[in-house]
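Feature request disguised as a bug report, sorry. It would help if multi-protein outputs had a clear separator. Right now it looks like this:
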Amino acid sequence: MTHFAHFDQDLDQIALELAGLGALCNVRLRDPGMVQSILEGHTPVNCSNPPAFQKMRGLLALAYKTIEESSRFEGPEATARMIHHAVQIASERRDRFS
């Protein structure tokens, strides 16, 4: 398996899981400042599921690490395409269930 396929699949899976956890925690991860706030450990007021929040926080950190590694191995342009794809499929899934 090439690095590209590996990173692409990882980012897709992380994005899908984050979309589900965002719904569980009543959090819109695409809202300005939300990801940074979560990474800093600030639990959103309307989140009543601490285990889901902690998992979401960990997955966000993993996403950043995966993006960093992908950029190093695949380059920033390929990584940007992977991120766009991951966000697109996560958005489509979220829209189907909302």
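(second protein starts here, but nothing in the output says so)
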Amino acid sequence: MSHDPHAALLELRHAATDRAMIVDVDERRLFAIDGIGEPSGSDFRLAADTLRQVARVLARSLRRDRFVTPRPGILECAWWTHPEPPPDELPTVFEDRSTWHWQQMIEIPDEADEDAVAAAIDEVRRGGGRSRPLVRMIRLTEGRAAQILHVGGSADLASSLRKLIAAVAAAGLHPHGHIHELRIADESDVPIGRARSILRIPVENL
């Protein structure tokens, strides 16, 4: 992967619908909220709105205090269930996520230090009248992974996941870990036919 942060970001947000791409994802800092259930659920929507809010608060503080305009982050979501299904069963099981765990995330700009991150989280906590914040900062390293582009809404992700799992197997690799969804064009912001997501899953040699 390129050592230029902008070039690296473009690599990670590039994918095709007809084939899997192999990427190497270094450690990143992200705002995160955990939950359980379908992407249509109220908890899921609340988490997405809260993450967008804390990202806006942080971006505003960086413009004010650092005179920088950070690149906007996108909503991401890691999905997993226990026990982890075999790869060939994963797409079918993924069709019903009512009991799946999720972790929604938005990447934190490199320009933000720990104090700015903590201040943004606390401002959103106070604005929501909560005694404890919904949002926390995490560090995530995905390593070697395969990804594919999905066109359409989250409800149809299983079809693209099936393509991804098949491509991984054809390459002699084994998928493991969380299914990672990156909402390049979120279905809540654009018509469903124009929604775009990248599906990513860590891989290892057989």
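Even a blank line would do. Unrelated, but nice: The longest strand covers residues 196-205.
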